[in-house]
Design brief:
By secondary structure, the protein is mostly beta strands. The protein contains one helix and 21 strands. Helix content is 4%, strand content 49%. This is DsbC/DsbD-like thiol-disulfide interchange protein.
């Protein structure tokens, strides 16, 4: 099953200050947009100019957080701003996919949400739509938080020539983004069941756990669904005999949701240094 990402529930902020960021003229890689900065962090685009085996180009949105600041996963939960990356104004390039590394669950004393406590990169898979020089133009909107929460908006651009020289620094930066992604399910660690409860009020998820795992460490489940669907933090019902069972309350769904329509749901499970990601089609 392939992973995909969706825009989740609407953001809720108690206090926010909008930061429209300008580009900061700092030293850049050959295919680097330059940093956009705001209070608590900065971000940029990086592209590896060497084509991948399938002809695509690989890139990353690089988010550098100041100590104590955090940002959000694609489905933060009841509060938070999911990242938005719009590349529709690009020329000669299109976005095939954005991926997100496994998050952590954060309790800030006001709410519990899913995100990142340290600098993070979101990998991008790009396709050339022409044979000439291209331009990657991105409108990016994320949220970052410390004692206050700051919506962070920036316009980022990179000129991508038709025949660019190899850039080993950019290649390493981009490769590190992909290396941080969760693994596909493994023989010893996988989602073995995922379905709606009989009344469709919750998801019921079972996960097989590796035999060798840190004692006393509970696995964490993260769930993201299509636009209009929202889920409460998963509840771990039991973890015994090598299987963890969860209930994930459904707290929002589109008015048009039909009981017979398949709902694609992304599931990420973390356990210590390991993480897996998969997609389930639920009915």
């Amino acid at each position: 099953m392939k992973t995909a990402r969706f825009a989740p529930s609407a953001p809720i902020f108690a206090a926010a200050t909008l930061a429209i960021a300008g580009l900061v003229p700092l030293p850049a890689l050959a295919l680097d947009s330059g940093w956009a900065e705001t209070e608590g962090g900065r971000m940029r685009l990086v592209v590896d100019p060497s084509p991948q085996a399938d002809g695509s180009l690989a890139g990353a949105l690089d988010i550098d957080l100041a100590p104590g600041w955090k940002t959000y996963w694609i489905d933060p939960g009841g509060s938070g701003i999911p990242p938005s990356i719009d590349l529709s104004a690009s020329k000669g390039l299109s976005l095939r996919r954005v991926d997100y590394p496994p998050p952590v669950r954060v309790d800030d004393g006001y709410s519990v949400w899913s995100g990142y406590k340290h600098p993070v990169k979101f990998p991008l898979v790009l396709e050339r739509t022409g044979s000439g020089d291209a331009e990657l133009n991105a409108e990016v909107f994320i949220g970052i938080c410390s004692d206050i929460c700051v919506p962070f908006q920036a316009s980022l651009s990179i000129a991508v020539p038709a025949a660019a020289d190899a850039d080993s620094v950019a290649a390493r930066e981009v490769a590190s983004a992909f290396q941080a992604l969760a693994e596909p399910p493994a023989e010893d660690f996988a989602v073995t069941a995922a379905a709606f409860a009989a009344d469709r009020s919750a998801l019921e998820v079972s996960v097989s756990l590796p035999g060798f795992r840190p004692a006393g460490l509970a696995p964490a489940l993260f769930v993201a669904g299509p636009e209009g669907w929202a889920f409460a933090p998963p509840q771990l019902l039991a973890s015994e005999d090598g299987t963890a069972r969860y209930s994930v309350p459904v707290v929002g769904r589109p008015k048009s949701a039909d009981a017979g329509t398949a709902v694609p749901v992304d599931l990420v499970v973390t356990l210590g240094q390991r993480a897996i990601a998969t997609r389930a089609e639920l009915r």
